[in-house]
TrEMBL record:
<feature type="domain" description="EGF-like">
    <location>
        <begin position="271"/>
        <end position="307"/>
    </location>
</feature>
<dbReference type="InterPro" id="IPR000742">
    <property type="entry name" value="EGF"/>
</dbReference>
<dbReference type="InterPro" id="IPR009003">
    <property type="entry name" value="Peptidase_S1_PA"/>
</dbReference>
<dbReference type="InterPro" id="IPR018114">
    <property type="entry name" value="TRYPSIN_HIS"/>
</dbReference>
<dbReference type="InterPro" id="IPR009030">
    <property type="entry name" value="Growth_fac_rcpt_cys_sf"/>
</dbReference>
<dbReference type="InterPro" id="IPR018097">
    <property type="entry name" value="EGF_Ca-bd_CS"/>
</dbReference>
<feature type="domain" description="Peptidase S1">
    <location>
        <begin position="459"/>
        <end position="714"/>
    </location>
</feature>
<dbReference type="InterPro" id="IPR001881">
    <property type="entry name" value="EGF-like_Ca-bd_dom"/>
</dbReference>
<dbReference type="InterPro" id="IPR052080">
    <property type="entry name" value="vWF_C/EGF_Fibrillin"/>
</dbReference>
<feature type="domain" description="EGF-like">
    <location>
        <begin position="313"/>
        <end position="354"/>
    </location>
</feature>
<dbReference type="InterPro" id="IPR000152">
    <property type="entry name" value="EGF-type_Asp/Asn_hydroxyl_site"/>
</dbReference>
<dbReference type="InterPro" id="IPR049883">
    <property type="entry name" value="NOTCH1_EGF-like"/>
</dbReference>
<keyword id="KW-0245">EGF-like domain</keyword>
<dbReference type="Pfam" id="PF00089">
    <property type="entry name" value="Trypsin"/>
</dbReference>
<keyword id="KW-0964">Secreted</keyword>
<dbReference type="GO" id="GO:0006508">
    <property type="term" value="P:proteolysis"/>
</dbReference>
<keyword id="KW-0325">Glycoprotein</keyword>
């Protein structure tokens, strides 16, 4: 850059200029420059040139400087020299741009040397323009021809193999060069697998599909082979044959009911005669068909809808009353039925059913303390009384005086001359002497009760029971040999005959029992762990009642076949009843008797029943009672279901009449008793399960199982 100052001009005071390094000098901040196209002139009207600017005797005493080597500096584009008149350039120029241009043109017309050159250029300017155009056209044609030639240069016409490619060496020469050929058929593993690979004369390959295979018909992919399903042709196999497609082929086999036979005509399928097996149809006969057979039921049988090879027996006794004779009943037999005499009757010589007098024909029908009384079709074992009234079962011994009952000891002394019976009577009478001795020892030692497990809550707030009032109440205990050397009370039960007691099935459910109790010793048989006491008022181990009571063992027991286990708290109460047979017969007495089985009449809603079980009174486990009310209508069903989760049709829901009295899980098996016609007690229910509120309980309805019980009970 070069910079200069023009001190003698007013508008150049302190004005700096800058050269752009090319052909002009630019000035900055010159407010007096009329236009950027005005040029400076000397006193002769000639545009200043670099050579002139070097002169030392120029006018206006302009001081300047410029960069060395750059002498093509012109003032015609310099705003600093805009004043081209003869007026003092220190004052501002007042000319208009038009006047400045006119003065410039006029100056160029000055007939000087410089003006002459300008006129020559002005006269022949079109020649220069024409030459410029010619040069531009020539350049364009050259470029166009080059492009055209590159696009339309001569092509090579060689024909190369697919394995070669055409290569242009120059604009006129070319040749075929070999290219790298990929042979897919040599790949490992083979691209066609088990099928032969065929390489094309170029790129690509084909898998040759062998017999049983073809290219996918959906897209005809030559590089794949898939299995042909020959079994789509329904006629590919013979008659009664089934086609089985295999990889690359197929096989034929005989249909079910046919067997393969090799003949001169090849393999054929022949029908199998299934009826040659005489056991093919149960309770029916077989009829052979082509490829199959049919079971036709014998008379008296009907087809089983779940098993076509079996025929179910028709129970003709349920369809109609086929036996109309007196005291006859219908007995179903396989495929038919027969009419037999009812229980307690037998046929005479005239084919009539007459009563059997069991009392006359058997001396062991009733025990020694009972009087046998014949009934039509049955008999009764009546308790011996002065009034000769027959009390068969369920007698209320609290009202014995009003019925003329005497104690068994003195009654037997007055009414029998049998020495053995007399000895028995004296033994019973002498009991009081032994009781006194026992009472003395009791005073010295605190009574030890049968321990009650903390999980086995018993009856709470029950009412007291008179001694001997209910002589059929039984208790199931774990023998001391199997539980910490002391008996353990587990369930209640009810004596219903000389041989049998009834309790809840879950009390004898071994799996459920072992979850509740941990035995200290294993018995040889599960039934051997139980000790049964009957008619004991005080269950404490050192009580007089317990010491004088007799221990009974279980000969066998039967759970109901449809019993549903109570393993969980939410289990359904269903058929929770069991019958125990004792190892020895019970001899009836005023302290040991049985309760009556119910009639076929069911319990009804709002019936009041009595439950007797063992509860805690001070240090004793004594019989107590409480009353429950049957809830057997729709009004109470929702609450019973909520309390007990679920009970089956063979059970009923009950609630204690006193809200403060409740039953516990330790009262399982206890009998719910109904006093029938104010004459005798009958067993209406068996305690099965308590509700969330212990006032609610589920009772198994004994009357719904009366036929099952009667078939098992022995007198």
């Amino acid at each position: 850059m070069s910079a200069g100052i023009y001190p003698n001009r007013q508008h150049f005071d302190n004005l700096s200029y800058i050269s752009d390094g090319r052909d002009r000098i630019s000035y900055i901040n010159d407010p007096y420059a009329a236009t950027s196209h005005d040029a400076p002139f000397d006193s002769r009207g000639v545009v200043l040139r670099p050579t002139d600017l070097n002169k030392s005797n120029r006018e206006n005493n302009i001081t300047y400087s410029y960069r060395s080597g750059q002498d093509n500096i012109y003032g015609y584009n310099n705003a600093a020299f805009s004043d081209i008149s003869g007026v003092d350039s220190r004052g501002p120029s007042m000319r208009t741009p038009q006047q400045n241009i006119y003065n410039v043109q006029k100056t160029f017309q000055n007939p000087k040397n410089n003006g002459k050159a300008s006129r020559i250029c002005s006269k022949y300017w079109y020649i220069f323009v024409l030459l410029t155009l010619i040069i531009l056209v020539a350049i364009g044609l050259g470029i166009g021809f080059g492009i055209f030639y590159s696009k339309h240069k001569s092509k090579c016409h060689l024909s190369c193999d697919p394995s070669e490619r055409l290569v242009h060496l120059n604009s006129t020469h070319c040749e075929c060069q070999c290219i790298l050929i990929i042979n897919e058929c040599e790949y490992e593993p083979p691209v066609c697998g088990q099928f032969p690979c065929i390489k094309f004369n170029g790129t690509g390959y084909e898998c040759h599909c062998t017999m049983g295979f073809h290219h996918p018909p959906s897209n005809n992919d030559l590089t794949r082979c898939e299995d042909i399903d020959e079994c789509r042709n329904s006629h590919i196999c013979g008659e009664n044959q089934i086609c089985h497609n295999t990889i690359g082929s197929y096989t034929c086999s005989c249909q079910s009911g046919y067997e393969t036979i090799v003949s001169s005509n090849g393999i054929i399928c022949q029908d199998i005669n299934e009826c040659l097996d005489g056991t093919r149809c149960s309770n029916g006969h077989c009829i052979n068909n082509n490829g199959s057979f049919t079971c036709v039921c014998n008379p008296g049988f009907t087809p089983d809808i779940f098993n076509p090879l079996h025929c179910d027996d028709i129970d003709e006794c349920l369809l109609s009353n086929n036996c109309t004779g007196n005291n006859e009943i219908c007995e179903n037999i396989p495929g038919s039925y027969k009419c037999i005499c009812a229980r307690g009757y037998r046929r005479d010589g005239h084919n009539n059913c007459i009563n059997i007098n069991e009392c006359a024909e058997s001396n062991t029908t009733c025990d020694i303390n009972s009087r046998c009384e014949d009934r039509n079709g049955s008999f009764a074992c009546c308790i011996k009384t002065i009034t000769n009234q027959c009390i068969e079962c369920g007698y209320d011994y609290t009202n014995s005086s009003s019925n003329g009952m005497l104690s068994f000891a003195y009654t037997n002394l007055l009414l029998t001359t049998d020495l053995s019976a007399t000895v028995t009577a004296f033994a019973i009478a002498n009991t009081s002497l032994r009781l006194n001795a026992i009472k003395k020892s009791i005073k010295k030692n605190k009574l030890k009760k049968v321990n009650n497990h903390v999980r086995r809550t018993r009856m709470i707030n029950g009412q007291s029971v008179e001694t001997g009032q209910f002589p059929w109440i039984a208790a199931l205990l774990i023998k001391s040999d199997y539980y910490n050397s002391e008996p353990r009370y587990v369930c209640s039960a009810s004596l219903v005959s000389s041989w049998n007691i009834i309790t809840a099935a879950h009390c004898l459910d071994e799996q459920h029992f072992r979850k509740q109790w941990e035995l200290t010793r294993e018995p040889s048989l599960f039934k051997d762990i139980f000790d049964i006491r009957i008619g004991v008022h005080n269950l404490s181990l050192n009580s007089t009642d317990f010491l004088q009571s007799q221990s009974y063992s279980i000969a066998n027991f039967t759970l109901h076949s449809d019993y549903q286990t109570l393993d969980t708290e939410h289990a359904t109460v269903k058929n929770d009843i069991a019958l125990i047979k004792l190892t020895k017969r019970i001899e009836r007495s005023s302290k040991l008797d049985w309760i009556c089985l119910p009639t076929i009449v069911n319990v009804h809603d709002q019936n009041i029943l009595k439950v007797v079980s063992y509860s805690h009174t001070d240090d004793d486990s004594i019989q107590q009672q409480l009353n429950i009310r049957v809830l057997d209508n729709h009004q109470y069903q929702a609450e019973c279901q909520r309390q007990l989760n679920d009970i089956a049709e063979d059970a009923f829901c009950a609630i204690t009449t006193n809200n403060s009295s409740v039953l516990g899980v330790g009262d399982s098996g206890a009998g719910a008793m109904l006093f029938d016609n104010n004459t005798h007690w009958q067993l209406a229910g068996v305690m099965s399960k308590t509700g969330f509120q212990k006032a609610y309980s589920a009772m198994t309805n004994v009357s719904t199982h009366i036929e099952w019980l009667q078939s098992l009970v022995e007198r």
